[in-house]
Amino acid sequence: MSTAPVVWNLEDPTIARIEEQINWYDGKSSRCQNAYKRIKVIEIIAAALIPFLAALHISDATPQPPTLAHIPLTIGTVTAFLGVLITILEGVLQLNQYQQIWVTYRATCEALRHEKFTYIAGAGVYASAGNKLALLAERAETIGSQENSKWASLQQPQKAAKAGEQAQ
């Protein structure tokens, strides 16, 4: 049996599907990572500003009673807004599971890349396989199925929480 490298032919439907999956997981992972990090940076800044603003002890010299048309913007108002903002952002992170999905998608992308390069090199399980392309397709689909199972398990806590809220 030959262990010569094989050609990665993008015209082949199996190869094209794997490339699409790699690109999809790579893109989604990057977007989830960016969303997670942006939200976390905003949360960190907001959390850092709260004690800073509280330490200023500045109040308006002539406080005015709030009306619908005019709500005075005081340090207390800004501090309260920052607290609300942190709560909302943390809720968004919990709801969308950006960090968990980012890590899962990145792992799936890298597993697919590993299969791709092992296949191209004719190494590992591909060194002795009779039908290398069929084995590649099977292993790539297994990786995708495992990721789908992980994604579904991430969604279960959200469904349980929603069901609990609706029961109340």
Question: Describe it for me?
Answer:
With 168 residues, the protein is mostly helical. The protein has one domain (13-57, 73-162). Helix content is 75%, strand content 0%. The protein has four helices and no strands. The chain is elongated, with a radius of gyration of 26 Å. The mean pLDDT is 86.
How are the secondary structure elements laid out?
Blueprint: H1 13-56, H2 75-96, H3 98-121, H4 132-167
Please estimate the helix content: over 70%
Strand-residue fraction?
A: under 5%
Q: Which residue ranges are poorly predicted, with pLDDT under 50 across at least 5 consecutive positions?
A: none
Strand count, sense and barrel status of the largest sheet are: none
Number of helices: 4
Features:
mainly alpha; 168 residues; 4 helices; single chain
Short description:
Helices cover 75% and strands 0% of the residues. The chain has four helices and no strands.
